[in-house]
Amino acid sequence: MLEITNLSKSFHHVQAVSQLSLRLEPDSVVGFLGPNGAGKTTTMRMVCGYLIPDQGSVRICGHDVATQRREAQMRLGYLPEAPSGFDRLTVNEFLTFCGQARGLSRQPLRHAIDRTCQRVNLGEVLGRPLAELSKGWRQRAWLAQAILHEPEVLVLDEPTDGLDPNQKELVRALVREMKPGRTIVLSTHILEEAEELCDRAVVIDRGVIVEDAKIDRLVDPSGRLAARFRELTLGV
Prior knowledge:
This protein has 236 residues and is of the alpha/beta class. It has a domain at 1-75 and 153-164 and 182-236: P-loop containing nucleotide triphosphate hydrolases (Rossmann fold, 3-Layer(aba) Sandwich). It contains nine helices and ten strands. The protein has a six-stranded mixed sheet, sandwiched between helices. Strand 7, helix 6 (165-178) and strand 8 (183-187) form a beta-alpha-beta unit. Helix 3 (91-101) packs across helix 4 (106-120) and helix 4 (106-120) packs across helix 5. The longest helix has 15 residues, at 106-120.
């Protein structure tokens, strides 16, 4: 459902991502893990068409992101890291705009907004501008736009960042609920989150994949990823 082939990107002669290839199937949650500066967010931005790669290609449900951008992005939901913007719009206006951009209108759009707000418990702030929301509420509004159109591929960059423990559990429950029939890519610095939610982990360091395996092959006898993560990214 998501196929990445030989993806590379440099910034001012610094290689951020190098020859990265992945094939991710439906009915899976894949943890995209790595230290700060490893290339995770750069890769996700290229997957979503936000950045143009220097080399390589991305296909979403068979559609090339570069040459069939609209078809690919209609099947994609993306929550960026530390999302911002659209501050003057109310949450309802923001979701209406995002839904219309994805081809929804009138009653189907209203149903999609109602359904999504129930999923992420967003109803009480629908009439408030994004600028007035706390970081946690704003994060949930941006999560709502990512799932509004029921995408087949969902890319979540640090989805629980800024959330309190109850809000984090709501997001984790949502990921579990949405897994059937979808490909979900989840970037997180919280290894316990990957242990709990992911079937597979892809570990990236300095722009290259250093491990790609099922979670149960990477955890220690206590079910923890930390020791293997340190070994892969620090060599200890």
